[in-house]
Specification:
In chain A, 40% of the residues lie in helices and 27% in strands. Chain A is of the alpha+beta class. Chain A has one domain. Chain A has a 5-stranded antiparallel sheet, with helices on both faces. In chain A, a hairpin with a 5-residue loop joins strand 4 and strand 5. In chain A, 31% of the residues are buried. In chain B, strand 1 and strand 2 form a beta hairpin. Chain B has one domain. The chains are: A alpha+beta, B mainly alpha. Chains A and B meet through helix 2 of A and helix 4 of B.
Amino acid sequence: MKKDYLIQAWLVLLLAVVFGVALAGVEKLTRPKIEQNVKDLIARRLIDMFGEGTETDEAEEIECVVAGRTKKILCYPAIKDNKTIGWGIKAEGQGYDTLTLLIGVDVQVTELIGYRVIKCLETAGIGDKIKKEKGDFYKQFEGKDAAKPLEPIAPGKQATGQQINTISQATISSKGVTKIINDNLAAVRKKLAAKVKEGEKDG
Amino acid sequence: MADSALPGAASRFRNGLLDDNPIYRQLLGMCPTLAVTATLAGAVTMAGATAFVMIMASVVVALLKNQLKGHLRILVFTLTIATFVTIIDRVLQAYVFEMSLRLGSYIPLIIVNCIIICRCEVCASQQSVGVAISDAEGQSVGFLVGLTSIAVIREILATGMIFESVRIMPMWWPNWAVMQGPAGAFITLGLLIGLVNWFSMRKKP
């Protein structure tokens, strides 16, 4: 009876092979376009944060421990007039759902320029307020010290220093944003700054 | 069961639209129904992706129906559905990137959409390719009608607009934010199911 298993499953095995080949073909056809789409999106988000004329190049890959997990973080250079003026750090973490952000910092990784959303599946009309381009929530992050953690506080309270007012009805999502920024900056900041210094020496 | 005892192509198509409408009569595919109907564009994209998977899976299953073994058929259905879902997911990422980002994991989740596996089991694994295609088309159009009817109501009441750009409600309209969230999805779906039931009962002699 055991020997029959393979014979009985011939159709499943055959389909697995045929579908596998078909998927490999689709992957080969679509991969360059998808990679280009991701690059274009990153470039648009960098322009949002660093201004018109900003371009980007191949990302620096930095291996570090983020919230207890070893990860490879991609850091995209923000280039203006052939000079690197900052970085867009691609960071993933948890809001109400999984959130992917691009964290903008200056070239020495000392000042936070802001953040932009790459992927957000937060509840429509509630948690997705964190990606409203013209919202006040975005502006709070501009100019904060990249070396110190951000501290989320209740909406309406007077925010000072590193404090960020969370969004009413979107507390989990807005706390998620600050946690992702804190965790990723803490992990990547020194290593990225060291790479910049190394590059300056070589240059 | 003899093929002649089963509904024909026209009947299968009509049933998918009305009597066996996947959303209003069978209450299947509730996850995308509630999750992606905040905007009409999202609903249409989801319906299109589901239609592609349903039609292709029905064709493959109908072609293989004589080779299917009873205890392995669900495995074959799932393998087939998963393949076409992966294909449409990659195509959306390549050519409708922004929408793909917005729909996120709901596209891969089409794999577990009960409507598709149900049609493979009820129709495609028992009838000819032609009937299976008609059945999948009927169910796809029924699913599209279901999703868009909910999305139109939710988007207009939540934003005053349709397709996120065409204003329908007057400027003074106070956007009902609740309609964009899960509560709005449940309320709209419940009211529309009630309305469909009311019409159905009135039609009965």
